[in-house]
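Service request form, structural biology core

Requester: graduate student, group of Dr. S.
Request type: structure prediction, single chain
Budget code: on file
Notes: please return the result as structure tokens.

Sequence provided:
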Amino acid sequence: MFAPGFLHFVHFCPCYLYPLLYNRFRLSNELSNLRQQLWRAYAAIAHTLRRLQRSNPMVQGSFYLLRRKCGKPNCRCARGQLHGSYVVTRSEQGKDRLYTVAKDQRARIRQQTAEYRRYQRARAVLIKRHVKLLALVDQLAQQRLLVWPEKKSKPRA
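Core staff response, request fulfilled:
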């Protein structure tokens, strides 16, 4: 790398070597940690994407038992025993819509609305993980950036 006897011409002091090696080691260690975090974030995104790629059918909305009064004065609901019906509710064009679910479709619709909720949660997790991944990429780039051209210090008067 250097010609033999190179150090004979340079006034060499080990005290100058320590800060250079320390900063280089510290920088490479920080880059290594950032790369490891980046890889873990990437693996987490891959896991979330696999959850989003499920092929089960979905129905948008919430499935639940709706209990209400019919309004007849002599009905059992007037004494507190409300009428129950299973419904799916969802927002369409800014308005909440309610759909009654037939008895023979309840089990299937319950599963499909649950699948939709799982999809929505996984999508939200994917967004958060992408933000974290981009932050790590930015940190990695910041660690690698060099200031060029170097600013010259002003001579002291």
